[in-house]
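ok so heres the complex, two chains, lmk if somethin looks off
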Amino acid sequence: MSVLDFDRVTVTFGRHTVVRDVSLAVPEGAVVGLVGGSGCGKSTLARAAAGLVPLAGGRITVDGGSPRGRISMVFQDPYSSLDPRMRIGATLAEALPRRTPDRKSEVARLLDLVDLAPDRARMYPHQLSGGQRQRVAIARALAGDPDVIIADEITSALDVSIQGTVLNLIRELHRRMRLTVLFISHNLAVVRYVSDTIAVMQEGRIVEHGPADDVLSAPEHPYTRELLEAVTP
Amino acid sequence: MPRRWLNPTAIAAGVLLLAVLVMAVVAPIVWSEKADAVDTDQILQGSSAEHWAGTDSLGRDIFARVLVATGLSVSLALAATAIGISVGIVLGTAPMLFGTSPAGVRAGRLVTAFVNILVAFPGLLLALFFAVVFGVGATGALLAIGFASAPSFARLVHTLVAGIAERDYIAAARIAGVGRVRLLVRHVLPNIAEPLVVNATMAAGGALLSFAGLSFLGLGVQIPSYDWGRMLGEGLGGIYVHPSAALAPGIAVIVAGLAFNLFGEALARAVGLRNPSARPHRTPVAPAVSTSDGAAVLAVEGLRVSYGAVTPVRGISFAVGRGESVGVVGESGSGKSLTALAVARLIEEPGHVSADRLEFQGEDLRQPKRAHRKLLGTSLAMVFQDPMTSLNPTQRIGRQLAEVAEQHQGLNRRSAWARAVDRLRAVRVPDPARRAKQLPHEFSGGMRQRAMIGMGLMGTPALVIADEPTTALDVTTQKSVLELLRELREREAVALLLISHDVTVVRQVCDRVLVMYAGRIVEELPAASLTTAARHPYTRALVAAVPDMDTPRDRPLATIAGRPADPAALPEGCAFAPRCPLADERCAREDPPMVAGVACWKAGAVIAPDLQKRSEAAS
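and the predicted structre for the whole thing:
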């Protein structure tokens, strides 16, 4: 059964078609990796799913219904994704559902999920390191108890030494909570490490999609082969 | 930071503004009686000991009246600014509040267009128009000046909001279901408050002047009330007989206007530009002691880069041989980019570079000499991370390359252009003669980076310093740019200093790798043995932390515990000790020296699996 479903989705900006007729299913409890070069439309696809960009055609559904309020997102730049004027606790509390009884303990639980001490709730983003901010962003994404999490290049702005901890966290959370994740990155090695299936996107189209091992060991599309060649020295 | 406030202008402006505001509150209470006292014996007197600024046509003391008028003048100016800013915020945020639905977007555009038209009118013209609409009098003038200042506030707010609205935290809040009004109040307004307050302060000064103008023309405050503008108007008639009657309110307007504007300027400087606070003292450079060995293109010994009390590069030594390719890896903040900039003499004040030896092509670079400019210009090429910002967007690529040859090699325009085309060909830009005529935006990221490298090759460089040249590029383009660097090295016998946070990139191109941590080189080793023979625990962790196509997927990635060292607060012993799974007491106490290519007391020691585990949990 698929949770997040893109059905012939097209997104245009003015006269430019950025996403063309994309169909992609993200099954429940799976991590689907989406790779492609910059400008291939992968981030636009993510923003469309989160309702940040209007569709020009097709449909995006979660469990067959509207994706509204059921998708959360983690962004690339941990420096721009947290409000600099808001304490971490307030940022997390804002993302909690309206009728959460004990917000304070819920915030503490979220921080604990991403291995941050509960006293971080009183801090401002500038008091945290890039990796810690990205953890907060992941905690915020978990706050609304979403059906699907979209991770858009969440490690590309981080140092390699911190990238590892964030990837481990995503894997760990996935294992523990059966999260459904659409993991977007230009880095094939990173996508390979976390994903069950891999979709390759080029110029607004998905050119190949299959189980991670198949796509990497027996790529069918020339662009996939090109990507693979680029990372193997 | 309080010290940013402590400059004479800011203090003077603050004191002046405070005085004006206190006067606005106090004067009407204290001097009202004196200001209103009619004395028919003393009509239109000049200045005297009793009446400093003379008296008016009813014999009232002008100085007292000027002081009392501060209250009305300043409060009207502030009220007008408040109206302007409120209306401005409403108009400026309207496009955002209307939302992204097609109808909302259309309504938003309409508001923006309306504001754009209003901004085009001169403020005073608008004020006069509104003054006629709202009727003559203080209220009319207040509304007039308030509404007249609204368009520029609306424009400002609109621009600021547009900048904030693109931030990811706004998108994140929208995804979390935060409504537009709450979004505005909680996320947008607090983040645009600073520039808004600064502009409001200056606008208050402007409003004060406008009020004086309107009242002077008889469109503002009416009898029996009075403000500075009306007093100025009344006094002007007799300016040749009793100049003080017009000068006193005039001076008051200038002082109050200056107070607001200067304070606004000071505020702007305090929140915006951060003045470099501490200037480092220049330490005299020791005379060169070394003999230059002919093999090295670049020889560096004891290089230090400091900013005030902080020293991000703490005495590093290395050499780059002719045609050799050396990589520098490390986390951000390790000092690797500063090292590159220091070598290219690009560190600017307040940064300060010192070295025991800094030789490029046998030339001592430590003494500032004009000749170095030519040497560096022709023999050293620098490639930066972001090719979009390193090229001038308004100039053709070929022209920008040719300029280098004209400047440093004295070629004429035509042959410089020919060389530019030739160099573009050398960096594998297809159809170079045509592409040379294009502008940077017509080039893709990879092509721009090639053009940048081509610019470096306009001379006959002995060394190319590339600072994260592929970080902003796609994986596929990244590979081709790295291949280009490798190829150029072989073909043109250029040495390469490649700086990157990515171990895999360095491994692909370099012969030798320098690993930097906290401003020091902690290990130096052949690139080929990075994965197999690294001895410093930091190098090993750095290599293991990057997943490659063979990383086992069922095991967690190795990570480096803790945070990168803060150059402002380094530990006493080894800087890496707090994060190191092998560290013991000695590591915390004594800084390890560089011995046989590695600076570590525990070099090569086996990292037990359980220790590795511990370091993961701690991060």
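quick notes: The helical segments of chain A are 42-49, 88-95, 103-113, 130-143, 160-177, 188-194, 212-217, 222-231. thats all i got rn
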